[in-house]
What we know:
This protein is mostly helical. Helix content is 51%, strand content 0%. It contains two helices and no strands. The longest helix is centred in the C-terminal third of the chain and has 15 residues, at 36-50.
Amino acid sequence: xxxxxxxxxxxxxxxxxxxxxxDFTPRVAFILGSGLGALAFHFFISxxxxx
Length: 51
């Protein structure tokens, strides 16, 4: 099963997303808790890969 270690540093998260989509620029900042950050991360990656 896939496991990843997530950081609470938003700039680190942006760096991860930019590796998949170099022209990505964050438009909204938000805080997620209770594991929702992991869910959002997978949602963004799936959206980036489908573009």
